[in-house]
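Quick one:
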Amino acid sequence: MRRLKILFFWLFVNKNNVGFIEMLKFLTKPKIHRIAKNYIDKIIETDDYQVSFKDTDKVLYWPKSFPLNRLDQVICETFDTSDWHYYQKQHTIIAPGEILLDIGTAEGLLSLLEIDKCSHIYMVEPGEKFYKSLQKTFIPYKDKVTIFNVAVGNEDTEIMFSDDSLTGKIVEGNEANAQKIDLRKIDTLLSNNEKITYLKADIEGFEEEMLKGAELTIKRNKPKIAITTYHDQNDPKEIIRIIKGFVPEYNYYVKGIYEETPKPVLIHFWI
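Output:
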């Protein structure tokens, strides 16, 4: 049903830079569990799951409180270059020496696989469970990473946040298991003029608010940007307007079709 809805959007609404052959390949792709198995070497169960992958010595820690099968989607998005959620398309490849700002790091697989290539990686992850697993994953690379356990937006304040679900969410009032965390602008986190060359963002519909709080950082650095746009709260046209309002010379292209709406999955920006 999901693939038929996407095909309908592609035929009658918007192709979002998905060509005919690419659509055929999408419609006939194996399910994500089968694709993910091609990349996993082994999984060891300890306090967290320790996941190792083929063709790399990197080990990822995945919180045991989250379903292990949800890792399949993450693996496909990070390893499968044909996935529309894959960040490194033609103009947004992570190059040697890149300084990556990974907003909505979650489990950190993208950053882990690119850590040797990057000069430094700044990670932003509000969820306490993922934050603790990130600390374990990146112990061997502690001199090359900075991990912020905060949410990001367009003001500096505090919010209530629940990470009972995989995606986490901002909540109102005293919802069970929610905790108070800091909300910070990117411009505040990088207030000492830290340089970035690449900005990746997937923060469950809060991308527009994040961008408004990153104006100085984007204007100063003009990084490559790969940003998700398919969440309910997002307006892809508004995201384009915001970023090109900061730096008019940005080029961009949209990519992919979301299953619930014809929104693009990602927008890629580069100078």
